[in-house]
Amino acid sequence: PNYDRVSISVYDINGRLVTTLANSYFHPGHHSISWNAASYASGVYFIKMKSTGFLETQKIMLIK
Length: 64
Fold this sequence. Notes:
single chain, mainly beta, 4-stranded antiparallel beta sheet, 4 strands, about 60% strand
């Protein structure tokens, strides 16, 4: 609900950082970010979203 820095990162199954999708300040509201994964291999990845007082990780499966 506040103007805050948001970081959204993608990690591979081994925990290595693959890419950072966002690392900037956002105004309150709904936002959309796309990941062009055309150059990445199929497999399991983790998306981590972090801001002040908030941290969430989701597991995704990339299938080509």
